[in-house]
Prior knowledge:
The protein starts with a helix and ends with a strand. 36% of the residues are buried. The protein is built from 5 helices and 11 strands; from the N terminus they run H-H-H-E-E-H-E-E-E-H-E-E-E-E-E-E. It is 16% helix and 35% strand. The chain has one domain: Galactose-binding domain-like (Jelly Rolls, Sandwich), CATH 2.60.120.
Amino acid sequence: MIMIIFSVWLSVTHHSHQEINKSNDNLSNGAKRNGDTLSESRYFRNDLYELLHTLPAFVGASSVAKSPSLSVKSMLDGNLLTAWNSRSGETIGTTILFEVPAYASVKRLKLTTGFTKSTATKDLYLENHRIRKIEIYRDGISIGQYMLNTNNRELQSVEIGTQGGKFHIVIKETVPGSNRAWHEVCISELEVWGQIPNDRPIVIQEPKIL
């Protein structure tokens, strides 16, 4: 299944490397790296950059709920009260896709294991499926399986330490929520943290949705 998804992605994003290279050519060499604007933003911390928003990047999912409020964009907006949801009935095997330029160094991913929103009457984190285990692929090759804490609704770090490229995050195990009628997986936030060579410009931008 991974290879099928990977092949489709290669076809859909055949132009992606050209767009990344074009974007880099058009970026200003005067873009701030460690200046006040970038260092005070949510995209630069402890000498690492949030790569999905500081480099030309692509993000997608193999399954997306119909509601616009549950789209891929909802796990990239910095808001823990929103979330991407898969389609109903599609949990195990659902895949998140992202691409960052190969010259970047990817240190870690940060993600939530579910929909972290709660209100006075509902706790969407406990009612929905929560992600317990993922497998990460880079350019079609597995780089490891990782367990997540389904009792922790905060962003959780997954250390991967590799170069940029095309990545798949495959959901391998979930914990069902208390609402047995809900059969979706959710992620409120996904971040990709790493380093960028000094000779590469940086511009805060939204990732393109596949």
